């Protein structure tokens, strides 16, 4: 446990669900934990006891699923175990997906078809997911490699990895439901007779939806608020001049309206209390990185590749490097949009970020 974790509380201590069995953590709420083949090696999924009218209008007891995991033979097998062990003989009535990343939406098509139910998701994330699922170069290929080169990346092994990373999204999300029900910020969903309010969030995904139940004092935070790590905030080739870090930090402020004792159910890590403390930690973390980058910019102009050793002190594999480049660029863009840095294309065709001329002169005078 790191020092910051002492400021938040894990009410379930080290208890975790076993594979293929959901663990009840509150009346009518069960926790499912599934493995992932990445450095971030798991995702939390949630079962909410529900009651919904069927086609003839009769009320049917069952479950709402929140998030799905990637599509693979292993995750399908784990879900089959969950159906047998944890649904208490009841059906799944609805599938809610917080956002369009593969570990959240990958099996939505299979679950929806299996139980003949509708997918609930924000319209932005549904449509971005459809684009990514049917675009072999959505998260890799030549366009992505060229984007990293534009921002200073020269590691040939990494660039080769990116160029070969075609069909990344479709491999994990081979299909999507053909229709969906739209979720928007401030929508209120009745789940089992309890009101769950949607909280829109931006920066990590196009239109992330978290769910808050005031009666239960529970927040299903998705990837917006995680207990041990900061969720990835990246600039991507498809939206090369975005400012996702500003969107993310602003979105976090919405959660300060929730009670401090709210039980947070994150997509990664363990359920925790200490929401306000964690939001402040995340704000401080990113402000510290921004200050480090700005300090380095007093010495020289910076590409995103130059920022990697400033932000990341550990060795990164090729998969992690894609996230790291996006994150480095997100911090540079925050400073660029805030007019603390300016961006120029150098003679080698690389975007470099530097202090404004008057600030550079002042910095040089101070160093002299």
Q: Can you walk through the features of this model?
A:
By secondary structure, the chain is of the alpha/beta class. The protein has 2 domains: 3-284, Ribonuclease Z/Hydroxyacylglutathione hydrolase-like (Metallo-beta-lactamase, Chain A, 4-Layer Sandwich); 299-367, Winged helix-like DNA-binding domain superfamily/Winged helix DNA-binding domain (Arc Repressor Mutant, subunit A). Helix content is 36%, strand content 21%. The strands form 3 sheets. Strands 1-2-3-4-5-6-7 form a 7-stranded mixed β-sheet. A 6-stranded mixed β-sheet has the order 8-9-10-11-12-13. Strands 14-15 form a two-stranded antiparallel ribbon. The chain is globular. The longest helix is centred in the last third of the chain and has 23 residues, at 275-297.
List its salient traits.
alpha/beta; Arc Repressor Mutant, subunit A; 2 domains; seven-stranded mixed β-sheet; 21% strand; globular
């Amino acid at each position: 446990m790191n020092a910051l974790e002492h400021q938040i509380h894990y009410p379930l201590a080290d208890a975790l669900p076993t594979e293929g069995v959901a663990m009840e953590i509150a009346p009518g709420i069960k926790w499912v934990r599934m493995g992932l083949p990445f450095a971030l090696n798991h995702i939390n999924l949630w079962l909410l006891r529900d009651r919904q009218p069927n086609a003839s209008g009769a009320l049917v007891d069952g479950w709402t699923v929140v998030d799905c995991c990637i599509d693979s033979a292993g995750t399908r097998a784990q879900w089959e175990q969950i159906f047998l062990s944890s649904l208490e003989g009841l059906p799944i009535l609805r599938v809610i997906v917080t956002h369009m990343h593969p570990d959240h939406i990958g099996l939505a098509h299979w679950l929806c078809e299996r139980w003949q139910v509708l997918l609930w998701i924000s319209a932005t994330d549904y449509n971005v997911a459809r684009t990514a699922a049917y675009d072999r170069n959505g998260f890799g290929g030549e366009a992505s490699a060229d984007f990293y080169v534009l921002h200073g990346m020269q590691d040939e092994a990494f660039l080769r990895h990116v160029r070969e990373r075609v069909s990344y999204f479709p491999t994990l999300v081979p299909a999507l439901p053909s229709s969906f029900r739209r979720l928007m910020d401030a929508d209120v969903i009745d789940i089992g007779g309890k009101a769950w309010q949607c909280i829109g969030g931006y920066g990590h995904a196009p239109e992330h939806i978290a769910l808050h139940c005031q009666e239960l004092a529970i927040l299903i935070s998705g990837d917006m608020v995680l207990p041990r790590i900061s969720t990835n905030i990246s600039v991507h080739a498809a939206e090369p001049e975005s400012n996702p870090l500003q969107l993310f930090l602003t979105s976090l402020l919405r959660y300060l309206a929730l009670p401090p004792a709210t039980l947070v159910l994150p997509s990664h890590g363990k359920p925790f209390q200490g929401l306000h403390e964690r939001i402040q930690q995340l704000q401080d973390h990113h402000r510290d990185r921004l200050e480090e980058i700005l300090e380095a910019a007093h010495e020289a102009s910076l590409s995103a590749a130059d920022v990697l050793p400033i932000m990341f002190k550990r060795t990164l594999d090729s998969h992690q490097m894609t996230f790291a480049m996006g994150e480095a660029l997100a911090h540079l863009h925050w400073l660029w949009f805030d007019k603390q840095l300016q961006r120029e294309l150098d003679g080698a065709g690389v975007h470099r970020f530097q202090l404004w001329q008057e600030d550079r002169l002042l910095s040089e005078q101070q160093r002299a």
